[in-house]
């Protein structure tokens, strides 16, 4: 039984959210009206409900798993599943030019689910503010936690849609309908940053319950926001400047997290993907899930429920999120144990002959290789649902074994109680490294990146086959300070982020932040469509495809107050 870290016994009205006609007039049902909440215990329940809300997405309206938005839309993975028509909305995302503002699931549903989480935070903030400090001694801390949670949801919306409406707990229903989505890019970043800064200023470094946001979490998240904000975009999403002041803020904030000594890299990268080692030293902030908690199905992550191997008898569904050949090739290494930056994609890597980064076997299901560290049931090509369309590779970082105590099958779909990391220490290190490189201080970035590579090289303990041999030939070495120029360091940083977070959904957003999405993705498509003909009509259009469209239903609901993103 997975331990509960936050209070989870709250009124069912706080747990179950009924549907609403539009996201912006969403009001949680049950006893969620702040006027009815007078006791500290009831308010504490609302705070818990706000924490729950950041994990309340679903398979076709995900709000924390970016497999469709950040992995399939990048060069990391194909949609997978039973052909291009199976969950066609994700196929449209993969082709870029097929996405429409009227798409009912994914584009519209994610928008609504994120605003539901924002509404929960605002309801709870109003309730907390209704009590005095004497009545509710934790008032300032809880307000800081709630503003952190609200900022997290707004940050996610910003990455997906860019031009979003932002309102706080003081806005009435009438006020909300007057809030446009036409703030400048910098102003909207600043509004979200103000919530994170409040959390930095008012949260303790350590909380009595592990899952609660703390000061260091807020500093790390604010650093992430400042890193995105540093890459200034014009109205057509082109990166026109890299703001050095913002980058220095990233360095200062990440240094505070690093210097605290509270977080460190886990000895094995596998520790980040297993429930037995969750909430470990590398986990900075995570959404908490539970199983065997007295409810029918637990509180589980179902957003990745489509992404288990279809033909594997222990699963049976559904075969989505197939690793791309491009990604597999990217894990190959040269004789010096470094990436094949310029030649990695010249052909189809023969994995029986090349050397690879160990992270390949932590990420990709490959025929004959242990799947999710179980060497008694190696991955098989027979597990692949549609190899004629999507090839024979699969993904596995966010999947769990059917024998895991965290695993639950509900009908044909799989859920897991493994916590979902929103921020990890490896991300903190690489954020600081990126800031140093763009500041022209690349020498400071080298040891940070090499920490990540050295950990990768050491992460072999769970990778052996049943006969005691390794499934791949591993060769991962740190970068050499010789010729460590800014251009080379930038290339290394961008490569390292891809390998470290592959299939976790970061890749697409990284490419957009760096301003290289169009070139990278069209280069990828031009090669990959020969290997995978289903991509023949795919094309990334700069100035449009960096962001999702504003849902047409929301534009209609606000009588045209919301303006559509460029190109749609």
TrEMBL record:
Residues covered by the SusD-like N-terminal domain: 99-227
TM spans (from-to): none
RagB/SusD domain mapped to chain residues: 281-568
Pfam families (UniProt xref): SusD-like_3 (PF14322), SusD_RagB (PF07980)
PROSITE patterns on file: PROKAR_LIPOPROTEIN
Signal peptide: 1-23
GO cellular component, one term: cell outer membrane
Record Gene3D superfamilies: 1.25.40.390
Annotated family: Belongs to the SusD family.
Protein's name in the database: RagB/SusD family nutrient uptake outer membrane protein
